[in-house]
Amino acid sequence: MKGTVFSVALNHRSQLDAWDQAFRAAPYQTPPKTPVWFIKPRNTHLANGGNIPFPAGETVQSGATLAVVIGSTARKVAADKVADYVAGYALANDVSLPETSFYRPAIKAKCRDGFCPLGEVAPLSSTGNLEIVTEINGVEQDRWSTADLVRSVPELIAAISDFITLQPGDAVLIGTPHQRVEIKPGDQVTVRAAGLPTLTNHVTQAGE
Prior knowledge:
Layout: E1 5-9, H1 13-23, E2 36-40, E3 45-47, E4 51-54, E5 60-62, E6 64-70, E7 86-93, H2 107-110, E8 116-118, E9 131-136, E10 139-145, H3 153-161, E11 171-173, E12 181-183, E13 188-192, E14 199-205
Parallel strand pairs: 1-11, 3-8, 4-14
Antiparallel strand pairs: 1-2, 5-12, 6-7, 6-11, 9-10, 9-13, 13-14
């Protein structure tokens, strides 16, 4: 990926449900009203076939999702015009340590080396009801649908382009469910969705 990878938290209904009670207590007092964004910096980017480094002593989770790849400069784009600015789509894996709070940016959880595998870019006719599947060592472990997102792909791109100018080569990850798949060294992690090139990565102990 040539550009910046942005990602959104709390964009799956299961996440908001799981965090609802905590968000109504201090320091939040209320669930967030706008998208919660974070960045997967360049050190996290990993190609199809690359090795995901596993930090010793940590719990690591796979977060299969979709990347929306920007094709032309996008600023304050209306949701119904988003398709004009998209170069294509790719499968992605928002690898993360478990999240215990959204009060502070989860840099240590989200931004470790190799924690953002990204697949090959391809066209996609629709993103409204896409099933994204995670397989570990060839066995399906998770399946979720983009129909359960809080904000659709066009709504997300409209929201982020309202305050950030997206450049060609940038990508936006659309979120993950609350329940994630735990991964360990030696695992082969495969992300699949109809119409897109499969994303496969191996998990190796960091430093090997």
